[in-house]
Amino acid sequence: MIAIGCDHAATALKEELKQHLAARGVACRDYGTSGDAKADYPVSAFKVATAVAGGQCERGILLCGTGVGISIAANKVSGIRACCCSEPFSAKLSRQHNDSNILCMGARVVGVEYAKMILDAWLDSAYEGDRHAARVAMIAQIEAGTFEVD
To answer: What contacts 10, CB < 8 A, 6 or more positions away?
Structure first.
């Protein structure tokens, strides 16, 4: 199950990506928002990030105007590794090297078809672990306040 959410700037893109996920056979849970009424991105970021961190959803997708604000907000939730991607290569490597669990994009930055390509690259990539595991563990230590630098 993929969690998906957005602010008012990205409702149209969110609906397109929900259809794309359905066509791929991927179930998703919509955490809002809908329509053009102003919606604060931290609300959707919190809902999706807590669903992913709490295990209700395996991964998440968050959308706002640029993808930046919503990724910053999502990354405040413990256990979240949200990445803002504007092209497929970074999306792929964010999964392979960083074990990203939320993909963020900007509806004012990428078009619908390119957003689908970015999403596909992210969905089709798996965390490689191995040499990357130590760095992901360091990120978790920073988050927990236990990271020490020599």
So the answer is: 63, 64, 65, 105, 106, 107
Instruction: Sketch the domain layout of the chain as residue ranges.
Output: 2-144
List the catalytic residue out of 6, 28, 64, 85: 64
The topology (CATH level 3) of 2-144 is Ribose 5-phosphate Isomerase B; Chain: A, (3.40.1400)
Number of residues that make up the chain:
150
Residue 64 annotated in active site: yes
Predicted confidence at residue 85, as pLDDT, reads 98
Block mean pLDDT (10 aa), the chain, length 150: 98 98 98 92 98 98 98 98 98 98 98 98 95 93 93
pTM of the model as a whole: 0.96
